[in-house]
Amino acid sequence: MSQNAVFTADPRPLSIAVLVLAHASILEVASVLDPLRAANRHLGREAFRWRVVTPDGQPAPLTCGISLPASGPLASADGAEVLIVIAGYRLNEVATRPLIRDLRQIAPRFALVGGVDSAPWVLARAGLLSGFKATVHWEDLEDLATAHPQIEVLPDRYVIDRNRMTAGGAAPAQDLMLHLIRTRHGAPLARQVAQSFIATARPGSDPQVAPRSRDPLLDPRVARVVARMEANLEAVETVADLAAQVGLSPRRLESLFQQSLGTSPGAYRLSLRLAAAHRMLTDTSHPLAEIALRTGFSGAPALARAFRAKHGVTPSSLRVSRA
Residue 191 above 70 pLDDT? Predict the structure, then answer.
């Protein structure tokens, strides 16, 4: 993780502009701003200043149905030391050509530019992550790396590389803000802020999604099988194959799955594959054949049959309804 001057001890107020795009999550906005507010409260002074901006200065509609007011358009972010972009869904709609152009033009004016959740996609399209290490929400890691090979995409919670920082979602964004507070004002303040939210700061290099093998609510052998399923959606493995991985008979594994998860290994694996397919259908433009391959189905027809049985609609009709 390369050092940036913003992440060094400095008693002076730090000015941050937060660009919120439509269809972002309110949790991500709060994860960025509330740790800064809490730091100011514990310090008894304004160590962090922020302003919320949107591309056009109008309120940003968030995923929960609330519209977030803005202090102005992106141009009003000028003068801040840090720019953080927060984005969520419907990137093709919100990452417009004018926005990409404006980001490319304004970025050099900041000491640090960051992106939260799917915002690294926006920064990448603006050419602002070329030659940098970065992360993105775990569901998009492979796609971002494929679409932008000039970026070293890491599966970390957050990444700081010179004058760029990226975080994979709301919880990693909170970790990143706690890191910022700690580096500028010390570990005791960062702990106070974390305790305010009954949270524990995690290092940026930690994975975004904790392995199910560490889940204390599951039988350890079931957790290991679940972790294997999650990591290898495209793999064709029988229950006997999975059971052998943890030294069990297929019948014993079936029994443990029923006790721990209330379902069979096969049904659980199918639910994972269909959930991944649903996400790709709604959030990407991948062809059906590619989605089928990446989620362990033999082809688009097999995916369509299973998808219809689960959701009552075909993958194609779902895409049409979301268009």
Answer: yes
The tokens describing 228, both together, are: 């294997």
Under 8 Å between Cβ of 58 and 21:
no
Q: Give the domains, in start order, of the chain with CATH numbers.
A: 5-196 (3.40.50.880), 212-322 (1.10.10.60)
Tens of pLDDT, residues 142-154: 889 999 999 999 9
Q: Give the separation between CA 161 and CA 150, rounded to whole angstroms.
A: 14
Task: Using the CB atoms, write b or e for 230-259: b if 16+ within 10 Å.
Answer: eeebeeebebeebbeebebeeeebbebbee
Q: What is the dihedral of CA 117, 121, 122, 126, to 10 degrees?
A: 150
Q: How many CB atoms lie within 10 A of CB 58?
A: 12
- Secondary structure (3-state) at 61: strand
* Reported pTM: 0.79
Q: Could you count the other beta carbons within 10 Å of the beta carbon of residue 204?
A: 21
Q: Per-residue pLDDT tens for 246-302? A: 999 999 999 999 998 899 999 999 999 998 898 888 778 889 999 999 999 989 999
